[in-house]
Predict the structure.
Amino acid sequence: MDQTELFEAERPRLVGIASRVLGDPAEAEDIVQQAWLRLHGTQTEIENLPAWLTTVTTRLCLDRLRSRTPEPVEAADHLEAGQAAGDPAEDAALADTVGLALHVVLDRLSPRERVAFVLHDSFAFEFATIAAVLDTTPAAARKLASRARAKVAQPAPEDLLADWEVVDAFLAAARTGDLDRLLRLLAPDALVTADEAALRAGTPERIAGRGEVAAFFDGSAQSALAVFVGDRPGAAWFHLGAAKVVFDFTVEGGLVRSITFRAAPDVLSQVVRRAGAARRG
């Protein structure tokens, strides 16, 4: 195989890593394309192409994360005395929930914590390899992953997700067709209902259960915009600048418990566009 064929063989794996680190499939594709350009432009002899591509892709992801969230230099490499090793069974269970964590909780980790956690807990990279990617020591890489794992498993009160973050994560998953992420954001007994006005507009009357609700929203909500419904974060379909149908979310414990489609005039009159937690206009 020539270099191009080898790269294409590695592309799915690289996109998978970048997608989990960044939480955005489109950004991941862009990062992997940048890795290809670097490969195409390098004059250095590469002994282990998969390892080289992994390092380059991950470092590009790290740069992208840092552009979003600057990281204090002193936070990365200091180790705390007496750090206990995690239980392997607990680590495996936590890694299984990483789909949700990456898209929501991991947004609050430092870039280096996020990279160390994803590479170790999702892809089973050894800490020596992660240390080389992060230009640090294996002990420091282990500490970064451990600190991230603790934040994901038991977030501090100040790290608990706001309702609007859960709503926006759900909508993003719906738009991109990320069924696994939708399932992780929904309560087991999730329920979709509608008021009479919304039913007349063509919304479903009732959908019950996590799987059914996720399947309904998978790949949908493309044109829904983020709003407040009174003081509750939600979304709405607009036509000619006016809200026509509202997605009224009930969020409990970081999970979507219910979504009610509403189109009654008194509800629509409460709709205000938002950007994250801020009102617009």
